[in-house]
Design brief:
about 250 residues; alpha/beta; eight-stranded mixed beta sheet; 10 helices; 8 strands; globular; binds adenosine-5'-triphosphate; binds magnesium ion
Length: about 250
């Protein structure tokens, strides 16, 4: 099914491998984007195990599943975490939300479109894996940010996702964000490796948008349910994410 895109700049945050920092990045990157007076919507696309609301300590009345079931105005599900930052919360522990059918996907796209004009950016935090919803969200977005860590399993999962999206879904532009970086040399090696493999076997040029160091401030903020960019603005991770937000116009 052809997927038509959504008009505010829509960015899908994805990875293949789980636990590499997609949700932490999505939330903190979204906050960094609001600092230029932009209005940002975070869609919790991890619809089986949603947790954007947990990271922002939000209380949620209606989530994506509730509005899809009731047909209510999707604005009723939006939770404003900050004046310029809204969240469309996902559902948790609901297996049927993990792989939406064509009709449900079209409905969800309709809901996102219905609120889209209120925002400058839409950030979609996806689930781990290569499930149908992950692939669909990448097609819905203008840009895909692929989060990976230097761990070889993260590299192979990211490669598998890139291969699938380019081969079967016509997506050929990927922006890499390397997370959990412990040193410049390790970081460069990881980026060089994935770039050369995708160039050689898939004939694709990846863009390296930037890297985020491994930082205790991130774990602490998660435990406190506070975004690290606000709780520890001077931390290395916060500065890296702020820099990434400044480079949003460089997304391919
Ligand atoms: N740069 C970092 N430094 C230290 N810890 C980090 C960093 N980025 C993420 N983490 C930690 O890694 C864990 C996983 O992060 P997060 O939930 O954002 O990953 P995810 O990719 O969204 O996971 P999932 O695939 O399960 O949705 C969290 O405990 C978070 O604190
Ligand atoms: Mg997540």
């Amino acid at each position: 099914m052809a997927v038509s895109r959504i008009t505010p700049l829509t960015i899908c945050v994805t990875s293949g491998k789980g636990g590499v920092g997609k949700t932490s990045f999505s939330v903190n990157f979204a906050i960094a984007l609001t600092r230029n007076n932009s209005r940002v919507l975070v869609v919790d696309g991890d619809m089986g195990l949603a947790n954007v609301d947990v990271l922002l300590r939000l209380s949620v009345k209606n989530n994506i599943r509730d509005i899809m079931e009731s047909g209510a105005d999707p604005r009723q599900a939006l939770v404003f975490a900050r004046p310029n930052l809204a969240v469309l919360p996902g559902s948790s522990g609901v297996p049927e939300m993990v792989a939406l059918g064509d009709r449900q996907q079209a409905r969800l796209a309709g809901f996102i479109r219905a609120v889209a004009s209120d925002f400058d950016y839409i950030i979609i935090d996806t689930a781990a894996g290569i499930g149908s919803s992950v692939l669909w969200f990448n097609q819905l977005a203008d840009h895909s940010i692929l989060i990976l860590s230097p761990d070889p399993t993260s590299m192979t999962d990211a490669y598998a996702l890139i291969k699938l999206l380019s081969r079967d879904h016509g997506i050929n532009r990927f922006n890499l964000v390397l997370n959990f970086v412990r040193g410049v040399r390790e970081g460069n090696h990881s980026i060089d490796t994935i770039k050369s493999v995708t160039q050689r076997f898939l004939n694709l040029e990846l863009s390296h948008l930037g890297s985020i160091p491994e930082d205790k401030a991130v774990r602490k903020a998660v435990l406190d349910q506070a975004p690290f960019i606000e709780q520890a603005p001077g931390s290395k991770a916060a500065r890296a994410v702020s820099d990434l937000a400044q480079r949003v116009h460089m997304l391919i």
